[in-house]
Amino acid sequence: ESIALGFESACNEFAFRIHACAIGFDHVHIVTSRDPTRSIENVVAVLKARATTRMKHDGTHPMAHIPSCPTAWGKKCWSVFIDDDRQLRNAISYVERHPMKDGLAPQHWDFVVPVE
């Protein structure tokens, strides 16, 4: 929940358009539109930063007990660029189904917006 609230904060602050999001135990999947002013790496960095801020605020950061509280995120992101509507629909479907693969309930986040 804290990660989702951090992502929502980033979407509101920077007008990111996320079309699918699955938050797992140890990783996250998102499908997002291209941002006209930021690289995908920068978008991901902002999402991670806002989620980290929220986890610290909520007391849910998994490494808060360690001095200097290291990041909970990997350094890089894996990005796939989507070229057509079929790929986009498949990616969204994959992300929407992903929580169930990890034994989690389906996820519905307020910041996720439909594809136009």
State the separation between the terminal residues, measured CA to CA.
26 Å
Biggest sheet descriptor: 2 strands, antiparallel
Instruction: Report low-confidence residues grouped into runs of 5 or more.
Output: none
* Lateral strand order in the biggest sheet: 1-2
Which percent range describes the beta-strand content?
5-15%
Mean pLDDT, all residues: 92
Strand element count: 2
What is the N-to-C order of secondary-structure elements (H for helix, E for strand)? HEEHH
Helix content: 40-55%
Radius of gyration in whole Å, from Cα? 14 Å
Put simply, the count of helices is: 3
Q: What is the general shape? A: globular
What structural category characterises the helix and strand content?
Answer: mainly alpha
Descriptive notes:
The chain has 116 residues and is mainly α. It is 42% helix and 9% strand. It is built from 3 helices and 2 strands, in the order H-E-E-H-H. A two-stranded antiparallel ribbon has the order 1-2. The two termini are 26 Å apart.
